[in-house]
Design a protein that fits this description.
121 residues, alpha+beta, GIY-YIG endonuclease, three-stranded antiparallel beta sheet
Length: 121
Amino acid sequence: MDRRSEIKKIYKQTHQPMGVYQIKNLRNGKRFVGSSPNLPARFNSMLFQLRHGVHRNRSLQAEWNEYGEEAFAFEILEEIKPQEAVPYQRSYAEELQELEEKWLRQLQPYGEHGYNRVVMK
């Protein structure tokens, strides 16, 4: 039991890659841009949802079904390193939000160019 607790503790203290990612349709160039504090887990979750036809983004799911898994690439656009967020006195969530907004402005993955939806503030 002590060994198991120690392994859990080490896992929780291990830094998971965090940052901004895209799922890109290699056939038509459309993309979905998002962010996550745990990129490997997010990729696994998205892949599971898409493979099982339950992804909440209907446009992305429809084209995944049409073109197939081989027509899509999962890519990290920018990572946050743990030491980068600390000096700015900002939380990782704030840092992720800022980076995601930067990439959304830059790539404009909306309408015929992507799967993201415009969010009104």
